[in-house]
């Protein structure tokens, strides 16, 4: 059972008791001692494995190298034993910097879990800051599970109700509050402290969507890591008695009034009732392919068409291809974005990741998708690919938009219908609603799939003994001691990481 909280803007002279503010309601959810259900525990384990998978594949990518160097420039803070950094065995850093470095590693390849509703999100971004704090303070596995369950619940509930992208606000504005709440649960903090941390977490993480527009930069990977870092710092300040702008959501000069739908806006935010288990993570879904989530189903459809119609790989056989899809897919990763970079063979990996015409063209030609090869400059510049790519456009379809926003999980969809007009005048029409790996898809991801994904991505950089150690440890998550939580990390094989080549900066 959930409780729907009506949230609106209040003039300064209107009374709004603290206990009626959304930030306080979030804090109450975070302090609820309800136990975490076994299915949720299992999914949390899956998502820790998933995060480790994509982090392993990213260990020597530029943003991770830079973020790791920044973290290593900061020693362990005096309040605990420090936190581990993905890829490194013995080095520790302060928890906010571990949240930063590990958050970038998790996000860089755009290859971990997702939840899409009124807003979109990658709720696995909650794990790095919560885990970093757990390691630093010596929390055990049970506490870590409880903290992560809260992080997922709060971010996903905000995502269900409050749209950010419509106002060009980046989606990590929901992550700052959720990570702060999750850390509060982990630490067993009181509602007042969590309330202040949630307010600061939101206040410091509202930024524009330009990070996902035009020529997309490396900041796309840093944005959620920054939100996680801010959440750690917000909790620290709140624990020291420092307060936050209030009411942060509902205030006359607050986030809703000036950054979102304005002074007359209202939202209905669902949160678990007291004593209700936090189950939100079960509604999220991971990625089989390293691409924007709205591209997942389209890659699967292109893979199917590749097998059924191999002639489509040759652009000479194709007149045009139109992907009829949701408003969001059309305007964010489709031709509706009006971004010429989405059709540029020299575009950055981050930009190609947000170009469904490019992704569909490559998957149609190759019959699959690879997290490195499919983005290689030589692959993007292949003449036959460019020719096919430039024949692909998207179009908004009202029915697919409705299904995208549906609250009914059985009809919620992220795909669409493809219409291919061939050079001989004939057409091929097909459609797909959800990705194969989606819970309602052709091959829903289960524990074995998460482990397989981890092995595929980790085997080039981790030794077999390390892979086995990590998988054995993480699958005992609720039973882990504080010492074992500190070992919940992946260690690269000798020679994989060269710390000496890291770029130099200010620190």
UniProtKB/TrEMBL annotation:
- Family in the record: Belongs to the PrpD family.
Keyword Hydrolase among record annotations? no
What are the record keywords, sorted?
A: Lyase
Catalysed reactions listed for this entry: (2S,3S)-2-methylcitrate = 2-methyl-cis-aconitate + H2O
Q: Which InterPro entries match?
A: MmgE_PrpD, MmgE_PrpD_C, MmgE_PrpD_N
Signal peptide start and end residues: none
Per UniProt, subunit arrangement is:
Monomer.
Q: What is this protein called?
A: 2-methylcitrate dehydratase
Mind listing the GO molecular function terms for this protein?
2-methylcitrate dehydratase activity
């Amino acid at each position: 059972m959930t409780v729907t909280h009506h949230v609106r803007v209040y003039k300064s002279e209107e009374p709004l008791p603290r206990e009626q503010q959304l930030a306080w309601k979030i804090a109450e959810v975070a302090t609820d001692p309800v136990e975490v259900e076994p299915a949720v525990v299992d999914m949390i384990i899956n998502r820790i494995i998933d995060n480790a998978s994509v982090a392993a594949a990213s260990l020597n990518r530029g943003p991770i190298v830079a973020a790791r160097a920044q973290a290593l420039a900061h020693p362990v803070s005096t309040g605990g034993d420090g936190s581990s950094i993905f890829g490194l065995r013995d080095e520790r850093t302060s928890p906010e910097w571990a949240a930063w470095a590990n958050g970038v590693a998790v996000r860089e390849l755009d290859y971990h879990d997702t939840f899409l509703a009124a807003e979109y999100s990658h709720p696995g971004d909650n794990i790095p800051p919560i885990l970093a704090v757990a390691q630093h303070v010596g929390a055990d596995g049970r506490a870590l599970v409880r903290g992560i369950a809260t992080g997922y619940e709060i971010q996903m509930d905000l995502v269900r109700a409050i749209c950010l992208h419509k106002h060009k606000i980046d989606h990590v504005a929901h992550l700052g509050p959720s990570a702060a709440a999750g850390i509060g649960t982990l630490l067993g903090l009181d509602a007042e402290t969590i309330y202040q941390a949630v307010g600061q977490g939101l206040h410091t993480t509202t930024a524009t969507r330009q990070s996902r527009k035009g020529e997309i930069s490396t900041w796309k990977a840093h944005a959620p890591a920054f939100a996680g870092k801010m959440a750690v710092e917000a909790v620290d300040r709140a624990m020291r008695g420092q307060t936050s702008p209030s009411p942060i959501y509902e205030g006359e000069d607050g986030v809703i009034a000036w950054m979102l739908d304005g002074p007359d806006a209202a939202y209905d935010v669902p949160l678990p009732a007291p004593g209700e288990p936090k189950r939100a993570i079960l509604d999220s879904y991971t990625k089989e392919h390293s691409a924007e989530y709205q591209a997942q189903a389209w890659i699967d459809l292109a893979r199917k068409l590749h097998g059924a119609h191999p002639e489509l790989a040759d652009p000479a056989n194709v007149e045009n291809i139109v992907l009829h899809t949701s408003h969001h897919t059309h305007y964010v990763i489709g031709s509706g974005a009006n971004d010429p970079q989405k059709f540029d063979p020299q575009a950055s990996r981050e930009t190609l990741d947000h170009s469904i015409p490019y992704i569909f063209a490559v998957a149609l030609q190759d019959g699959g998708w690879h997290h490195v090869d499919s983005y290689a400059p030589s692959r993007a510049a292949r003449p036959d690919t460019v020719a096919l790519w430039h024949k692909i456009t998207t179009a908004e379809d009202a029915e697919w938009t409705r299904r995208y926003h549906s609250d009914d999980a059985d009809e919620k969809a992220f795909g669409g219908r493809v219409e291919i007009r061939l050079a001989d005048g004939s057409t091929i029409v097909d459609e797909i609603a959800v990705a194969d790996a989606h819970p309602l898809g052709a091959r829903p991801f289960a524990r074995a799939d998460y482990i397989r994904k981890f092995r595929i991505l980790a085997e080039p950089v981790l030794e077999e003994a390390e892979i086995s150690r990590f998988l054995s440890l993480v699958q005992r998550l609720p039973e882990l001691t504080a010492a074992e939580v500190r070992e919940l990390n992946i260690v690269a094989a000798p020679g994989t990481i060269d710390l000496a080549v890291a770029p130099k900066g200010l620190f």
